Amino acid sequence: MFKNRGDSNIVYKCTVRLLEDTEILECEFHPSYKGKYLLDHVCQQLNLTETDYFGLRYVDAGGQRHWLHLAKLILKQVKDASPILFSFRVKFYPPNPLLLKEDVTRFQIYLQLKRDLLHGRLYCTSNEAAMLGALIIQIELGDYDPNIHVGNYVTEMRLLLKQTDTIEARIQELHREGLEGSGGAASGVKGMTTQEAERMFLKIACQLDTYGVDPHPVKDHRGNQLYMGVNHSGILTFQGSRKTHHFRWPEVHKINFEGRMFIVHLNYPEKKHTIGFKCPSGAACRHVWCCAIEQMLFFTLASSSEACVYSGGGLFSWGTKFKYVGRTEREILERDGLLAPRDSQEEGSSSGGKRKASSVPATPSTPMTGDFGYSSLPRSTHSAPLEESADDCDCLLAPPPAPADPRALACAPHAPHAPHDDKPPGPCEFGSREYEQSSTGSAEEWRPALQPPPRPFSLLRAFVPSFLLVCFCLALTALVVFETDWPPLRALKHKPELMSLRHHYYVPLKEYLKRKVIELF
After folding, report:
1. What is the pairing mode between strands 272-278 and 261-267?
2. Is it the case that residue 388 has pLDDT exceeding 80?
3. Does residue 154 sit in the same domain as residue 244?
4. Measured between alpha carbons, how far is 293 from 422 in angstroms, rounded to an integer?
5. From CA 259, how far away is CA 247, in angstroms rounded?
6. Which CATH number characterizes residue 250's domain?
7. Rounded to two decimals, what is the model's pTM?
8. DSSP-derived pairing of the beta strands 216-219 and 225-231
9. Domains in the chain, number
10. For helices 126-141 and 165-176, what crossing angle results, to 10°?
11. C-alpha to C-alpha distance for 39 and 67, rounded to whole angstroms
């Protein structure tokens, strides 16, 4: 399939799945084309001009998902894939999609949220689910018509992970009712235009806690299975039906990873904390780190020019460099005239503590550009095997909560899967909003878990310091032997081997260093 990359006449074909499962694009690219070309081509086919919120996702030979890097060669990123398959998805969910300029952009966001609702990533109560389902029906079928919409027509449309008879009946009721109920308050969706229903859908969805959350399976320091998500507000973790943590971007000082450990450095007014999560594999950990870094930079960085991030490894081990490509949200809003000048917003900062200049960029109130370094922290010593979930897909996998919540939207055991996605979604479940209270409780409940685990033995970290120590000892020995007149060493200094070593290596090196020192001063 892959020939000489230097041949400019070679054309590679790939398939791009769009947000509508029934729509695909067949695209072509040359070996020298980078990811930005393909994304721009797909957006051009969809008449999208606000391209910064979207991305192309693919799955490598090992089953790990990746976002296509816009500044790297397409062929280099998918060299092991056959056939080459991408999925067009929303990468950065805007905090308020109603501020988008183009209707076509809002429609693509709507399609993505519709998928999230179906695949279990967008949690909502039964009332919210019924309203969102009714809005989808209104958008796609229009006003209720008793001559057309007969029987249980909602069942024929897959809207939710688990469409119970109760929820379907409520959706039909909302679809039949007008904008004002018997009490004069807004009740149903009848009479809404397609644009009004779409805007109402986006308004409700963007206020949900799991809006824009793409779940990743991780484990905490005790081996408990969690799911981590990253969106415009920060990093969130869920355990079953409960939201366990929400680290907002102003609280996040650094993000790095070591092996399978994803590490978050938190900066609170009273104290700094570090918390680590264990990913299923090193590749999955790097993917989570890349996603978190991109989300943080996109929503907090004032300018994207020359923004690089380094992470992974320690002082004497290899790290990972990530180059941010594209505009940030602030640059997009400033371009569209939706944001006041930068100086007017620099007065008030919501950050809980002062950030160091070398840390990851802060919120837009403290703009920073350039390279941002990351220090290494101890790794985890947990050896418990991680469960290989059927995830790497689009839905949040979580164990069922202990107390069953009738408001929760759980995955149906035999819910049909969408035929066009990165990988088939597995069983998933979000619990009730009871996690709101637990997440706002005292921070003392989880702070002990923030202490860094002990560092395991590393051969590379042990070898490099030992090598430097040996070199220092040899240099010190040479100085003592050749520069002193200690009686016990006189016989050793006159040996032929040491005399040759002194004449050919030690003296020339000594004179060279002496000249350099004289030139320096």
Report:
1. antiparallel
2. no
3. no
4. 22
5. 22
6. 2.30.29.30
7. 0.67
8. antiparallel
9. 4
10. 50
11. 11
